Structure formats: C-alpha cells, structure tokens
C-alpha cells in the first residue's frame, strides 16, 4: 500500500520508509501551502489535507516539528525554521537562540513532532512525539540539521549532532511520533484526532 507524505524532504521519506518498511512511501510536495496554524498539529493537518484529496484510497501523512525553550516561553516553536528570518538559516537560528539565552540558567527545552494522518477512508488521526533536554552553551557536533548542535537530550552529555542519526532517531521527537503513527496505520492503536 502507498503512503503519501506531504514533504519535499527526502531525508524524511527515508526515515519513514525505515520505520514503515511494508508501505511504499511517496513524497508529495505541498508547495505553496500556507502553514499559519498556531501549533504544530494544526500545521500538520493543513499540509496533509492539502494532499489527501489527490490520493483517495491511500494513507496520507504530514508532520510539523520544532523546538520549544522553557525560558523563552516556548519560542521558537512553530517559528523554528525561520527564527532568525527568511530564508531559513540554521547557523543564524542557532546564533540567535544562544544570544537570547545569554546569562539564562534555565536551559530546559524540548523538540516536538506532530503527525497528521488521513486514512484511505478519509478518517483523520494524529500522533505526537516529544524529546526533552537542554540547550548547550555552545554548538558541538556535525551530524543532523537545524538545532541539533545545541540540543542535549536528557540522559546524554552530547548534543544530537554529536550522537549521530541512528542514536538520535531512537529517542527523537520524530522517531517517537513516527512509531505512534506506525501503530495507528497498522491498526494497533486508535488515536482519534
Ligand atoms: P519541520 O517541521 O520538521 O520542517 O521542522 C521545522 C524546523 O524545526 C526545522 O527547520 C528545524 O529548525 C527545527 N527542527 C525540527 N526537528 C528538528 C530536529 O530533529 N533537529 C534540529 N532541528 C529540528
């Protein structure tokens, strides 16, 4: 069975294919869709609904994720990709985050990933994954993307960018949300949106 994913990101397609090996995972770029919901799950549903009508009888999925920092009242949140402005620039985003946390002792943060699903019958489901940790004083590591060089997950002393993809995927917000989504698709759980 095909699973259409509202993304242009081949890295995401690969990760989803690894977690759902029985499905044929196909990217469908939701280009031009305006992600203006106030939260991750709202944006995920905007994206999945924009492709679902094109693929009746198939599963469709979209995800939306970002970083929430306690001392910044949950920022950058849904603005994670463009925290330091557009176009997206991870080095600038990380620089601004460190600047805004200068002298701040409370470094607690979490990554959140929300997944919106539409079933072949048109029913809607959602899945959520979180990964808690803290923001480092300076970037370290070269793996991953985005805020990975600054994020140290709880129970670890290294950043996501130092831990590498395999270890990161096992504990990450996206890995957790995808595992829940896989359960929904396989009919093993039934989380209604
Ligand atoms: P997206 O919704 O998955 O495209 O994520 C939006 C933004 O959140 C990205 O551009 C990154 O800045 C940030 N982000 C989301 N997930 C991660 C992650 O696993 N590591 C680092 N940054 C992330």
Distance from first to last alpha carbon: 22 Å
Largest sheet at a glance?
6 strands, mixed
Q: What would you call the shape?
A: globular
Strand content: 15-25%
* DSSP summary, beta strand count: 6
| Estimated radius of gyration | 17 Å
> Mean of residue pLDDT?
93
| Low-pLDDT segments, ≥5 res | 188-193
> Helix amount, in percent?
25-40%
Bound molecules: inosinic acid
Compressed to H and E, one letter per element, the order equals EHEHEHEEEHHH
Assign the structural class, choosing from mainly alpha, mainly beta, alpha/beta, alpha+beta, or little secondary structure.
alpha/beta
Tally of helical segments: 6
Which sequence of strands runs across the widest sheet?
2-1-3-4-5-6
3D structure, described in words:
The chain has 193 residues and is of the alpha/beta class. The protein has six helices and six strands. A six-stranded mixed beta sheet has the order 2-1-3-4-5-6. The radius of gyration is 17 Å and the shape is globular. The C terminus is likely disordered. Inosinic acid binds next to strand 3.
Strand and helix layout:
Blueprint: E1 2-5, H1 10-19, E2 24-27, H2 40-52, E3 59-69, H3 90-100, E4 108-118, E5 124-135, E6 151-153, H4 160-163, H5 165-171, H6 173-185
Parallel strand pairs: 1-2, 1-3
Antiparallel strand pairs: 3-4, 4-5, 5-6
Helix pairs in contact: 5-6
Bound molecules: inosinic acid (IMP).
Inosinic acid binds at residues 64-67, 80-81, 88, 93, 111, 144-148, 160, 172, 174.
């Amino acid at each position: 069975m095909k699973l259409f994913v509202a993304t242009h990101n081949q890295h995401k397609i690969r990760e989803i294919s690894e977690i759902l090996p029985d499905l044929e995972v196909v990217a469908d770029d939701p280009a031009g869709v305006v992600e203006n919901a106030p939260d991750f799950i709202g944006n995920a549903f905007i994206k999945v609904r924009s492709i679902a009508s094109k693929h009746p009888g198939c599963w469709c999925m979209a995800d939306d994720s970002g970083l929430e920092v306690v001392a910044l009242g949950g920022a950058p949140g849904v603005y994670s990709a463009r925290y330091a402005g557009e176009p997206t620039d991870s080095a600038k985003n990380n620089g601004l985050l460190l600047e805004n946390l200068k002298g701040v002792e409370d470094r607690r943060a979490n990554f959140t990933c929300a997944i919106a699903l539409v079933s072949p019958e048109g029913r809607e489901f959602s899945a959520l994954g979180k990964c808690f940790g803290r923001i480092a004083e300076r970037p370290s590591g070269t793996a991953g993307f985005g805020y990975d060089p600054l994020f140290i997950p709880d129970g670890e002393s290294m950043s996501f960018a130092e831990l590498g993809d395999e270890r990161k995927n096992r504990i990450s917000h996206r890995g957790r949300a995808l595992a829940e989504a896989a359960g929904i698709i396989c009919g093993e759980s039934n989380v209604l949106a």
